[in-house]
Design a protein that fits this description.
With 331 residues, the chain is α/β, with parallel strands linked by helices. It has helices at 43-55, 71-79, 111-125, 142-157, 171-178, 197-206, 256-269, 276-287, 300-312, 317-329; strands spanning 3-5, 12-14, 18-19, 28-29, 60-62, 88-93, 95-98, 103-107, 130-135, 161-167, 183-189, 209-213, 249-250, 253-254, 291-293. The chain contains 10 helices and 15 strands. An 8-stranded parallel sheet has the order 3-5-6-9-10-11-12-15. It is globular and about 50 Å long.
């Protein structure tokens, strides 16, 4: 079992987590009706997949209160009954949803809202504490973030949460939270196509866990999709074309530039018997001892393939150098 320390917390966690965005199922923008989920899901399959992860020794679960308008947390709460003490749970707050209508309604980071959102997550997760409570509004103004940090420190003192972090790709935001002794992780986008070196260096400097959002580039790094095999589910967020941060897919079709790069490095990633997915995760582990990828899933099979990557461990320095050269040539 490949393990890592979870930042300043001192907690031992598996070097791989599971990301629970997709298992929340569909929810949509209240104004436009456009999707934020990954399509329909089978809750029984989701629970079986979580149990599969636990059987492999994976003990880190990441979710958010807006995934499926709260449904992801509810599914996790069901799956972890009788197993809570074996798991480190990370969830997020900041985006407001309606669980009945499955609508995304906007943002809220007021003191009262944060505390009420925390209570709601505790109920859905069927637990009396959250291990890592993460701020989900990545571009929240610097000048207002101090109040959010202080509110989270209050929740630590109240015993509602153990530690906190920020899901953001902006180092200036992460730096604010890093000043607190209770901040133990920063979640940020990180994969072969999005090498966020500045954020990784910040995590290393402050001894924070680098929780890697989108480690498989929303599925592009699995090799499953191409210009002729695209995402067809109209409820899948990858079908959208109007989100600036949606780099990997537009209208369900993967980026041709990225698929060309992937073809160039495929042989290295799949060396020594790895699948393409497992090679992409191995690249992240080789980047730093602070990295903790959280690939998403919808099936037991996906969780099993991801978990098997831990048996291979990180890529070698020589393999990393080869990949860096080939990626540069294909830019």
């Amino acid at each position: 079992m490949l393990k890592r320390k979870l930042g300043r917390s001192g907690l031992d966690v598996s070097a791989l987590g599971i990301g629970c965005w997709a298992i929340g199922g569909p929810w949509h923008d209240a104004l436009t009706g456009e999707p934020y989920g990954w399509g329909e899901v089978d809750d029984r399959e989701s629970i079986d997949a979580i149990h599969c992860a636990l059987d492999y020794g994976i003990n880190f679960i990441d979710t958010s209160d807006n995934y499926g308008a709260g449904h992801s947390e509810e599914v996790i709460g069901q799956a972890l009954q009788g197993r809570r003490d074996r798991i480190v749970i990370a969830t997020k707050f900041g985006y407001v949803t309606n669980g009945q209508t499955k609508e995304a309604l906007g943002q809220n980071a007021s003191v009262d809202y944060i505390k009420s959102a925390c209570e709601a997550s505790l109920r859905r997760l069927k637990t009396d504490y959250i291990d890592i409570y993460q701020f989900h509004i990545g571009d929240y103004p610097d000048e207002l973030a101090q109040e959010v940090k202080e509110t989270l420190e209050d929740l630590v003192r109240e015993g509602k949460i153990r530690y906190f972090g920020w899901s953001t790709d902006m180092p200036s935001r992460a730096e604010i939270f890093a000043q607190s002794q209770y901040c133990t992780a920063i979640q940020h986008e990180f994969n072969l196509f999005h090498d966020n070196t500045d954020m990784l260096k910040l995590c290393e400097r402050h001894h924070l866990s680098s929780i890697n959002r989108g480690p498989l580039a929303m599925g592009l790094l699995t090799g499953k999709y191409s210009e002729v095999v695209s995402v067809v589910d109209p409820k899948d967020i990858r079908r959208r074309n109007n989100l600036d941060w949606l780099h990997y897919f537009k209208d369900g079709i993967p980026s041709s530039a990225m698929t060309n790069q992937l073809r160039a490095i495929r042989e290295i990633l799949t060396s020594n018997g790895r699948t393409l997915t497992q090679g992409a995760l191995a690249w992240l582990w080789a980047r730093s001892e602070m990295t903790l990828p959280i690939p998403g899933f919808r099936t037991v099979r996906q969780v099993s393939e991801n978990a098997e990557a831990m048996k291979f461990g990180p890529l070698t320095p020589a393999e990393m150098a080869q990949i860096s050269q080939l990626m540069t040539e294909k830019c």
